[in-house]
Amino acid sequence: MNSRTPYAFTGNANASTLLDGRLEVVHAGIDAVAEAARATGAAVTLVDFEPPSGGEPRRMALLGELLSGAHVHEIDAANARALARLLASRPHLVGVGVARDVIPGMADDLFLHAGPPVSWERMCGPMRGAVIGGLLHEGRAKSVEEATRLAAAGAVRFDPCHHHDAVGPMAGLVTPSMPVFVVEDRGGERPGTRTFCTLNEGLGKVLRYGAFSEEVLSRLDYMRDELAPVLAAALALRGPIDLKHLMAQALQMGDEGHNRNRAGTSLFFRELAPAIVRATEDREKAARVLEFVNGNDHFFLNLSMPMGKCMLKAAEGEPLSSLVTVMARNGTDFGIQVSSMPGRWFTGPAQMVRGLYFPGRTAADANPDIGDSAITETAGFGGFAMGAAPAIVQFVGGSAEDALAATRAMRRITVGANNGFAIPALGFAGTPTGIDLRLVEERNLLPQINTGIAHREPGVGQVGAGLVNPPWEAFHAALEAFAEHVRAAAPPPGA
Amino acid sequence: MSTLVLVRSGCYQDSARLMQVSRELAAVAGVSEAVAMMGTETNRRLLAESGFPAAELAKATPLDMVVALRAESPAALDSVQVALDRLLAGRGEGASSGPAAAAKGPGTVTEALEAHPEANLVSVAVPGPYAAFVAQRALDAGRSVFLFSDNVSSADEVALKRRAAGLGLLVMGPDCGTAILSGVGLGFANRVERGPVGIVGASGTGIQELSCLLDRRGIGVSHAIGTGSRDLSEAVDGAMTEAGLALLARDPETTCVLLVAKHPAASVARRLHGVLARLGKPVAVRYLGEIARGDVEGVFYAGSLDEAAEKAAAWAGAQALPAATTTAGTGRRAEGDPEQGESRLVGLFGGGSLAAEARCVLAAHGVETVVPDVMLTAHSPLPPGNLVVDTGDDAYTVGRPHPMVDQTVRCSLIRAAGADLSVRVLLLDLVLGDGAHPDPAPEIVQNVVAARAARAGRPLSVVVSVCGSRRDPQGTRRQEEVLRQGGLHVASSAALAAGEAAALLPLVREEVAR
Q: B115 and B228: one domain?
């Protein structure tokens, strides 16, 4: 008997269209092979082919399985749910508190830092500088030498901000007495979710870039002793502020929410100024606070970041989702997390930033990529909203068209768009949102991150700003773990 | 001699481009060898084995372009670096760091189909290791695939075809050189009229030869569905041959069907016979290398492509050709040379199936041929015996385009064969059509003339078959005219050419004996 028919050709209409007299071709690979089709009258679209997933055969096989295997529909549905929850969240600024009082798990001997876990021994210069500054600021050390000795001796424990629902720009240092913004989800499917971020110090010599001079420390004191209490009182008087609402407006006023926050800061100032005046008896004090906010174009960054974190917390924990929910750097490693595997870091070496430098500074001064601020790109703005920010296009090549192309490119690796964050110059298209690990690998395209550049030595500060990508290692590791996770979580029928 | 390995990271180039880079760098003064490859593990191993520093090679990934160079002096290596920069800059790379500069066509098949939802076929000619991945994405999107790429594993081929069959889609390939669908050619294809004959083929040049033979008879082709060279293997089990036949059986334009393939597995041939016998339309089969079996339960098993084409032409209503042109032409007597002892034939083919067809016809004429087990080169003596070589075989095309596109290797072998005075008959093919060399005849003639000139008056008979249609861009008639004027015998099919060559050989031998 030889009646086996391993291939049941269903013979439905799909292939028949080829014989119906109309042929339109998409061609990938050597161009000459498509010559015949063009010469005989078919429309041919050429694909600009690049090998997927770094061209590594085993990883391509895993990726292929995740793109069209037994579980593709479940993965797609999980991503759609995770994205829907991200989009439905409504982060509000609800208060200003002290880190030790409001951040879950915060303790007197605990310092939080940006990025994935890192020991003192492996910390980069600016991160060490921030730790030294933090020890001085907390009064635990009287000198830089003492602070260095204490840090090396393990006098304080280190933990990533992300392990405590917090985010911090650059070094991202959070010490117990620091004031923090409290952001809370006031909508969506997970109302009450809270995220945290310190208040932005401004530019120049600042702790987050690893500076710890007297100027830096006295500013931190001012922020703790006057700025934070005044803002807290004003906020209590005015009530919670809808951060997505501010962000949506800021995107239409030339911000992208990461490297440019001038519009967001202005809008925040307008929102809160009357309440600051009303809540503060001392007019000079009120004026100083208003001047501080007004004088720092990046004040809103420390609100756009916990907003992004709050949105991504909503997307976390979807069992088969391949959405990226964290991208963060500690200046040594770059780490990402994936919705379906919350809390698990996938890391690779932090990359050098392709940047523009302050006068007198060069790439030789630069530290590798650092900070939790890539949460903005992860949440669908920052570098992903470059097309909204023509004022800073010098970072992406110099023309407004480059900025639009940068945003369009990110749409290639995202599951959807955030229609709440519309970009006028792109016909009010929403910002690309929800990075799909699979698409990054398939399209051989890494997320584009806007970022500042810290000096590599402790105590110096910012030297420039520019663009950076995550290391491929982090995505490759995440892909392999996700494939394993899918196999374990959803075994094929019959297994 | 200095060596140098350059690694350009994130600089993916297709193989055609890599060949061009290799060629242009090799032309730089003082450079003795230049190889541009993508940094896949296989390629890196290859280069390391050729003596390039492994430590340098280890830095490259499959997405990085590796340029390995040997030069007489370090100075030559410097000028190569400059030349490479210029070459790559010419493509617009490195001109601007901005993504707008990099914005090109869609980066994946998936995205191209999103932008062009009306596209119904995805054509894939990417390097083998990536081909199955790309083809799977086409199937994800519900599109049939023309898979030109080779070096795809049999397991991947089975997986692709199994899935395609379940979706009612075609995967034509891997290693599919030719198809014609609704008048549109894919890969290497001749411009033939639309007509009543449907073709299914596991052989690219087999399809081309059939469509051109029909064209010479004024009969058109409805569709020619390629299946890839391994479709009739045991593992693949004729999956796409069967799918293609099913489509043609239902196609109203198709009134009769031709099937061509090389060496089917016996079990597959048996199973397909059942399919063919129940097709509901007249069908003729040419299994290359097999002898004629005639009509078997309504399925006509032809002994040559010519016979199969003739059968289909008759079904389609063409008048029978006068007998003289369907049989091997009478060989002209080659000029005698009593000094020379041995007289043999060398066949140098661009079309693999045409080489197979020639071997079969030669055998039928009592000329035994050997397939040399070493690759022929212009520098080493030819192995003994009557040789028939497919210069499109993998061994001859590593890092080079197919001989139907680039005749360099074949022409060097024509000269080498000419230089061997024991070779008295040269058998060639010339495949025209889209995708092929734009004007191949003059180069062939030039090299035949050079070969003859090197023989000190000892004659060399050259027979060439031309596979071309009346509308092919090279001008079939003009190409044939150039060949004739160059003193070549021109035949209208590989089988006829082989027959003619076979007839020439004993005449030559006779003369030698006298």
A: yes
B286 and B423: one domain?
A: no
Are B287 and B396 in the same domain?
no
Strands A157-160, B294-296: pairing kind: unpaired
Tally of domains in chain B? 3
Q: Check whether residue B214 and residue B284 sit in a common domain.
A: yes
Co-location of B256 and B359 in the same domain: no
Q: Is residue B339 part of a domain?
A: no
Q: Are A6 and B135 in contact (CB under 8 A)?
A: no
Residue B504 lies in a domain: yes
Q: Which residues share a beta bridge with B344?
A: B423
A6: chain B residues, CB-CB within 8 Å: 162, 237, 239
Strand order in the sheet with B461-467: B387-390, B344-349, B423-431, B461-467, B489-491
Question: How far is A360 from chain B, CA to nearest CA, in Å?
Answer: 23
* Whole-complex ipTM: 0.90
**Cβ-based contacts of B140 with chain A (< 8 Å):** 67-68
CB contact under 8 A, A10 and B186: no
Q: Which residues in chain B have their CB less than 8 angstroms from residue A30's CB?
A: 14-16, 125-126, 148
- Asked if B103 reaches chain A (Cβ–Cβ under 8 Å), the answer is yes
For B481, the domain range is 344-513
pTM value?
Answer: 0.88
Together in a domain, B263 and B198: yes
CB-CB neighbors (< 8 A) of A409 in chain B: 99, 103
| One domain for residues B251 and B397 | no
Q: At what angle do helices A283-294 and A262-279 cross, to 10 degrees?
A: 170
Q: How far apart are CA A491 and CA B248, in angstroms?
A: 40
Sites in chain B below the pLDDT cut of 50: 91-102, 324-340
Q: What H or E segment, with its residue span, contains residue A271?
A: helix A262-279
Q: With a cut of 70, say whether residue A4 has pLDDT above it.
A: no
Q: pLDDT of A118-140, one tens digit each?
A: 999 999 999 999 999 999 999 99
User: Which domain CATH number covers B271?
Assistant: 3.40.50.261
Tell if the CB–CB gap between B188 and A36 is shorter than 8 Å: yes
Given B102, B135, B159, which residue is the final one in a domain? B102
CATH 3.90.1700.10, applies to A76-489? yes
Domain end: B52, B69, B102, which one? B102
Q: Which residues of A touch B62 (CB under 8 A)?
A: 51, 54-56
Kindly state whether residue B286 falls inside one of the protein's structural domains: yes
CA–CA distance, A26 with B130 (Å, rounded to integer)? 16
Express as a percent the part of chain B with pLDDT over 70.
91
Q: Does A21 touch chain B (CB under 8 A)?
A: yes
Q: pLDDT tens digit string along B379-391?
A: 889 999 999 999 9
Domain containing B70 — which CATH number? 3.30.1360
pLDDT of residue B90: 56
| Residue B91 near chain A (CB below 8 Å) | no
Residue ranges of A 444-483 with Cβ closer than 8 A to chain B: 444-445, 448
> Which pLDDT score, from 0 to 100, does residue A65 have?
95
Dihedral angle sign, alpha carbons of residues A276, A282, A284, A289:
negative
Look at residue B334 and tell me if it is in a domain: no
Q: Do B99 and A406 touch (CB under 8 A)?
A: yes
DSSP annotation string for B197-239: EEEEES-HHHHHHHHHHHHHTT--EEEEEE--TTTTSTTTTTH
In chain A, CATH 3.90.1700.10 sits at: 76-489
Q: Which residue in A14, A26, A395 has the most chain B C-beta atoms within 10 A of its own C-beta, making it the best mutation to test that interface?
A: A26
A window 23-82, beta carbon within 8 A of B: 23-37, 39-52, 54-57, 60, 63-64, 67-68
- How many CB atoms lie under 10 A from the CB of residue B426? 24
Considering the domain architecture, whether residues B421 and B486 belong to the same structural domain is answered as: yes
A23: which chain B residues are within 8 Å (Cβ-Cβ)?
120-121, 181-182, 184
